[in-house]
């Protein structure tokens, strides 16, 4: 069972690689807050991801809204991130897809296994769904608000086998 926050989905849409989620995970659960964020940014694509014969996304509602509100107050995370973390706890998910630093730290503190967009790209390459990670990272950096440090950029390329370790 995979749960996602908004950023991994929106960034994969921006580089036209949303298919990676379907290829890697078949179905991804999103909380209502993430659905609302996606519907503001990508309403047409979101509709397709929900209504295909075999839809990629499944929307779930967090039962205990108080937990979400407490998490938001304690961590200053947004609604989607808070709901994704609480849903991951409630459903005992296998993996949470999340990129935001504070969200990742909180999820790890709570014992939730996480990965982010770069982890998805690496897994996609490892499993043969994409040829190279570098052009996709370059496209993300050029086309969106996605930021990656030069050190992490090189580390990802080493892990992907696209450059040699120094």
How are the SSEs placed, and which strands pair?
Blueprint: E1 2-4, H1 6-14, H2 19-25, E2 28-31, H3 32-41, H4 43-51, E3 57-60, H5 65-75, H6 79-91, E4 95-97, H7 101-109, E5 114-115, H8 117-126, H9 134-143, H10 150-159
Parallel strand pairs: 1-4, 2-3, 4-5
Helix pairs in contact: 2-8, 3-4, 3-6, 5-6
Structure report:
- Helix 7 links the parallel strand 4 and strand 5.
- The mean pLDDT is 91.
- The protein is mainly alpha-helical and 166 residues long.
- It is globular and about 50 Å long.
- A three-stranded parallel sheet has the order 1-4-5.
- The longest helix has 13 residues.
- Helix 5 crosses helix 6.
- The protein is 59% helix and 10% strand.
- It has ten helices and five strands; from the N terminus they run βααβααβααβαβααα.
Number of helices: 10
Percent helix, as a range, is: 55-70%
Gyration radius from CA atoms, angstroms: 16 Å
End-to-end span in angstroms?
A: 37 Å
Main pleated sheet: 3 strands, parallel
Structure summary, number of beta strands? 5
- Unreliable segments of 5+ consecutive residues: none
Strand content: 5-15%
Structural class: mainly alpha
What's the average pLDDT?
91
Run of helices and strands: EHHEHHEHHEHEHHH
Question: Rough shape?
Answer: globular
Strand order of the largest sheet: 1-4-5
């Amino acid at each position: 069972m995979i749960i996602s926050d908004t950023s991994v989905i929106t960034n994969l849409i921006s580089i036209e690689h949303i298919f990676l989620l379907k290829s890697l995970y078949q179905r991804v659960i999103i909380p209502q807050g993430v659905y609302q964020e996606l519907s503001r940014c990508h309403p047409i694509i979101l509709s397709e991801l929900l209504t295909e014969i075999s839809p990629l996304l499944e929307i779930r509602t967090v039962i205990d809204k108080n937990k979400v509100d407490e998490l938001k107050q304690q961590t200053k995370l947004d609604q989607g991130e808070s709901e994704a973390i609480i849903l991951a706890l409630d459903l005992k998910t296998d993996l949470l897809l999340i990129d935001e630093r504070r969200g990742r730290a909180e999820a790890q503190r709570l014992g939730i296994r996480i990965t982010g967009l770069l982890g998805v790209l690496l897994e996609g390459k490892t499993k043969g769904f994409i040829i190279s990670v570098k052009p996709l990272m370059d496209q993300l950096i050029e086309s969106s608000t996605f930021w990656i440090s030069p050190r992490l950029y090189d580390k990802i390329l080493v892990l992907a086998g696209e450059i040699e370790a120094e």
